[in-house]
Amino acid sequence: MEQNNIAVGLDIGTTKIVAMIGRKNDYDKIEILGIGKAKSLGVHRGVVNNITQTIQSIQQAVEEAEEVSGIKVNDVVVGIAGQHIRSLQHSDYITRPNAEEVIDEADIDKLVNQVYKLVMLPGEEIIHVLPQDFKVDGQAEVKEPIGMYGGRVEANFHVVVGQVSSIRNIGRCITSAGLKLANITLEPLASASAVLNSEEKEAGVALIDIGGGTTDLAIFKDGIIRHTSVIPFGGNVITEDIKEGCSIIEKQAELLKTKFGSAWPGENKDNEIVSIPGLRGRDPKEITLKNLSKIIHARVVEIVEQVYQEIKNYGHEEPKKKLIAGIVITGGGAQLKHIKQLVEFITGMDTRIGFPNENLASDSKEELSSPAFATAVGLLMNGLKQPNKQVAEEGGDEETPTEEIVEEKKSIFDKWADKFREFLDNAE
After folding, report:
1. Distance CA 36, CA 306 (A)
2. How far apart are CA 174 and CA 76, in angstroms?
3. What mean pLDDT is predicted for residues 31-40?
4. What's the pLDDT tens digit per position in 219-258?
């Protein structure tokens, strides 16, 4: 099978590592050719803390995906998240030598590169620089300055920052697993491209991705990403609480949560009881579903309140910044019963569960459109969007024209990915 139009998304999560191989079909939908899952052992709260175990899990997931699809995986698109990610707003400007000339791509690049030179805290690196809106010679709220005349170009930027060592560790895991890094992107952005549509991004929407170790938030308004944040708890702390509260082992707690758990304690009757086999030779334990959902409820409320605080920090209460499309919840945590009702109750915002099925071919397996795979689907989409570099290399003498086309299409993210690869190579 031709390798050119195939991409691989690799989601390195706290609870699972997923490798997803896919390609676009004739209708521009994504056909998933193979998927591999492995338990993620070396990741804590989105950060790699055991390289050897993570490499093994990556290899296991990739091999499983290769077996299913019969395709050999070379390069992967990876998502980055974790509690070390933070974001800030920054504005910067350039003065152009000649105001009579039209503003072009090079001017914007110069402005963006200036932001990359911002001095960060020791050990931090800028991951993404996302322009929000521009000002040209004092004219505010310019969406696209290219093609305008002006001497001073100013812009507000959303800057995402992460820890160098954590990012490097992910890079090292990929290379040691025998893979190449095709691209790297922020996980909330990947999940967003899988579950949000352009109308929602235009109207204003907050995407909450509840993973195992972290909860990621991405806020869009007027089609542009406005705010990102990573909150260092996810579904694992709920399991942990059940384990402590009911004195049972983790495996049983996880099963209780997924099978019987609910985020809304009101609806369980007092007499609904689950019996859990005791440890070797001990009596079974009886747990009421009411107590179970009280434990879950308390923790989910805490997570949602933190996310809501971030939404307020962005300025959702100002009329101009109002998120009309409300909230979309995705990630494995979105599968918890009644979580939609709870989020609506706490925030007062319209809420829906985000399934990544809009972009998938209609004959895809049901399980692939589970919210738990939103990030993997988003990373795969990111890989399929990229202009095809392999073609240029294989073409030989036609290299130059293809190369030029590739150059033109490069987005801010691709430029960043190139920078990032350089940065990893220097680290080796």
Report:
1. 33
2. 8
3. 88
4. 999 888 888 888 888 889 999 998 998 888 888 888 888 8
Q: How far apart are CA 412 and CA 127, in angstroms?
A: 11
pLDDT-wise least confident of 160-164, 332-336, 424-428: 424-428
At 400, is the pLDDT very low, low, confident or very high (cuts 50, 70, 90)? very low
129-169 tens-digit pLDDT: 888 889 999 888 888 898 898 899 999 998 988 888 888 88
Q: What is the 3-state secondary structure (H, E, C) of the chain?
A: CCCCCEEEEEEECCCEEEEEEEEECCCCCEEEEEEEEEECCCEECCEECCHHHHHHHHHHHHHHHHHHHCCCCCEEEEEECCCCCEEEEEEEEEECCCCCCECCHHHHHHHHHHHHCCCCCCCEEEEEEEEEEEEECCEEEECCCCCCECCEEEEEEEEEEEEHHHHHHHHHHHHHCCCEEEEEEEHHHHHHHHHCCHHHHHHCEEEEEECCCCEEEEEEECCEEEEEEEECCCHHHHHHHHHHHHCCCHHHHHHHHHHHCECCHHHCCCCCEEEECCCCCCCCEEEEHHHHHHHHHHHHHHHHHHHHHHHHHHCCCCHHHCCCCCEEEECHHHHCECHHHHHHHHHCCCEEECCHHHHECCCCCHHHHCHHHHHHHHHHHHHHHCCCHHHHHHHHHHHHHHHHHHHHHCCHHHHHHHHHHHHHHHHC
Task: State the pairing for strand pair 152-163/124-136.
Answer: antiparallel
CATH number belonging to domain 197-354 = 3.30.420.40
Burial state string for 290-316 with b = 16 or more CB within 10 A and e = fewer than 16: bbbbebbbebbeebbeebbebbeebbb
Q: Report helix angle 235-246 to 250-260, nearest 10.
A: 110
Taking phi over 0 as left and psi of -120 to 50 as alpha, with beta for the rest, 248 belongs to: beta
pLDDT-derived band of residue 427, with 50, 70 and 90 as boundaries? Answer: low
Q: Is domain 85-162 given the CATH code 3.30.1490.110 in the classification?
A: yes
Q: Domain limits of the chain?
A: 85-162, 197-354
d(CA 1, CA 279): 51
